[in-house]
């Protein structure tokens, strides 16, 4: 019997149940062991103030090393690129949607405005249907220039402010159910969520907008399974549920992140995907206030390079990301 460690949230339990079902499809019996994480206990402190690295994974790491569980299941974007000594990646499940979405507040009302909610939705989605031009948008002093958007992610905040510098960002914490409730009780225009998290548990509202222009966190939408190093029978069982293509793409994204981290909490985004027998890699580094943005969009033939994430990191550094990272490292 493989003991599966998981956080207690509805989404985490759903993810762990998928792992359990996949293992049992191969004749491997498994059970769930819910464990509370630091990130689930403190729902007030912004993630960047808690020290983002490992805030949702530490409790499961400890349980794994103490032999309380045999494997741990994580949203891969929450897992530090450097795993603790004695813990290894055992499997990566096939990726779901990598996108970020904006969930609109059904109770939000614009007062005395001469624009429609549909205008705002098209503008935010980045399509051409809005009658409000982006140039005039930035100059308006009406309520449209002061929309309040909720997120606890430094990456999402930076990309949003880069696109909409006149908006206000509010912190929001908690599992997806808690955040949806907080949104409905607020005066916020909307809150940003990972599409996969809401879609997996059937909670994506109809009034949500795909943010196709927003690059995701490295490994967003992927589920990772970790195990103890050297636990041969468990590792062999998990290898049977490993999705090779997803594993390679998220490995590339995490290589990019690892090369750029520099010891600071930096808004770094990455997305790798196979297209026409090549690997397309898109990445960005954005200053926390959104004023500076460096991007990379590269294509790699896998017979020419085995480390596309590292090469993409070198490319974006040469394009100016090094200066942006240096400013943040220096606290400027």
UniProtKB/TrEMBL annotation:
Pathway(s) served: Porphyrin-containing compound metabolism; protoporphyrin-IX biosynthesis; coproporphyrinogen-III from 5-aminolevulinate: step 2/4
Tree of life domain: Bacteria
Cofactor: dipyrromethane
Single GO MF annotation: hydroxymethylbilane synthase activity
Assigned EC number: 2.5.1.61
Similarity-based family: Belongs to the HMBS family.
Record's protein name: Porphobilinogen deaminase
């Amino acid at each position: 019997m493989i003991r599966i460690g998981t956080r207690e949230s509805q989404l985490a339990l759903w993810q762990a149940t998928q792992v359990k079902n996949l293992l049992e499809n191969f004749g491997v019996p498994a059970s769930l062991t819910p464990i509370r994480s630091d990130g689930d206990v403190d729902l007030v402190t912004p993630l960047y103030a808690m020290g983002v690295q490992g805030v949702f994974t530490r409790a499961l790491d400890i349980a794994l090393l103490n032999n309380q569980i045999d494997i741990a299941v994580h949203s891969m974007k929450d897992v530090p690129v450097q795993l603790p000594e004695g813990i290894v990646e055992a499997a990566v499940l096939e990726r779901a949607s990598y996108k970020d979405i904006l969930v609109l507040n059904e109770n939000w009302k614009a007062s005395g405005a001469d624009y429609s909610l549909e205008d705002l939705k098209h503008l935010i989605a980045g399509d051409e249907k809005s009658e409000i031009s982006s140039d005039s948008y930035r100059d308006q002093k009406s309520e449209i220039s002061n929309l309040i958007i909720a997120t606890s992610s430094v990456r999402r905040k930076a990309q949003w402010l880069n696109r909409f510098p006149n908006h206000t960002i509010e912190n929001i914490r908690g599992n997806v159910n808690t955040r949806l409730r907080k949104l409905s009780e607020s005066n916020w225009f909307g809150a940003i969520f990972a599409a996969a998290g809401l879609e997996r548990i059937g909670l994506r509202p109809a009034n949500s907008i795909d943010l196709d222009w927003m690059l995701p966190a490295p490994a967003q939408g992927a589920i990772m399974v970790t195990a103890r190093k050297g636990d041969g029978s468990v590792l062999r069982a998990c290898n049977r549920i490993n999705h090779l293509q997803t594993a390679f793409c998220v490995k590339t994204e995490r290589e990019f992140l690892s090369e750029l981290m520099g010891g600071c909490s930096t808004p770094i985004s990455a997305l790798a995907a196979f297209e026409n027998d090549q690997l397309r890699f898109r990445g960005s580094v954005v200053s926390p206030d959104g004023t500076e943005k460096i991007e990379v969009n590269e294509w790699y033939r896998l017979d020419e390079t085995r480390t596309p994430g590292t090469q993409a990191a070198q490319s974006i550094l040469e394009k100016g990301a090094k200066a942006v990272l240096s400013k943040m490292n220096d606290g400027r």
